[in-house]
Amino acid sequence: MKILELKNVETQLGGSTLLSKISFAMEESRVVALVGHNGAGKSTLMKTILGELEKAKGEITINETSTQDDDLLTYKEQISYLPEEPLLLTELTVMQHFQLYAMSYGVEEAIMEEKIKTYTSGFELEDKLNEYPESLSKGMRQKVQTICALLPDTPLLLIDEPFMGLDVFAMDYLEELIREKARGGTAVLLTSHQLERVKDIADTYIMLQHGEVLDQGPIDDFKTIRRRKHDDH
Ligand SMILES: Nc1ncnc2c1ncn2[C@@H]1O[C@H](COP(=O)(O)OP(=O)(O)OP(=O)(O)O)[C@@H](O)[C@H]1O
């Protein structure tokens, strides 16, 4: 079943075109890697799919809902998002962040508690539940944000640089969790500069360059990102 479809999407910001002619589709249970140089447009594409950035042209459909035809809440409920930089609230504890995310997606309490137990144990955060973000290390904050994004079971999971700041054990654990999500039916779109790790988990790749899709296909066909040339601009 098709979970996400983009047709000829264009995004503009401050008078410049950041994305153009973006078209691709994702099926359920698929892990798709969004790759490309710094500034290629990966995060911009995620924010456009989320509706955080308004598209100037084109169509985006998630599980048959679109921002054009359906209300924004129905559309957004289909997506869970792990941003590149943790967005934690200074006044909430780790546990309160989990509760906030789980409640806003209507996750049942028993399921929430079980997941929190499993994920905090896997990420070695069990003793941090009552801490505030400021007393956590950068990697720990990243883990908290990661758990928040994994609590709901949405059809689409967007993860921007999920491995950044994590130690190797946490990266391996997260890789396993991403696989588990996909096995459960979730379509996972992730960005990463860790190409070797990406090759391990993704089924297909989409390469962006200067805000356009340069290339896409099965991950086994992915070679490398071409060195940026000055005359590419
Ligand atoms: N708020 C903004 N205002 C104007 N331009 C922006 C803004 N955010 C990003 N851009 C521009 O959009 C382009 C794409 O940026 P984006 O963050 O999507 O790249 P990326 O592929 O995610 O890069 P990275 O690998 O460094 O995370 C860049 O040229 C960047 O300068």
From TrEMBL:
Keyword Plastid attributed: no
CDD domains, per the entry: ABC_DR_subfamily_A (cd03230)
UniProt cross-references to InterPro entries, sorted A to Z: AAA+_ATPase, ABC_transporter-like_ATP-bd, ABC_Transporter_VariousFunc, P-loop_NTPase
Cited PROSITE patterns: ABC_TRANSPORTER_2
Domain ABC transporter positions: 4-233
Entry keyword Nucleotide-binding: yes
A Pfam match: ABC_tran
Molecular-function GO term, any one: ATP binding
Alphabetic keyword roster: ATP-binding, Nucleotide-binding, Transport
The name this protein goes by in its record: ABC-2 type transport system ATP-binding protein
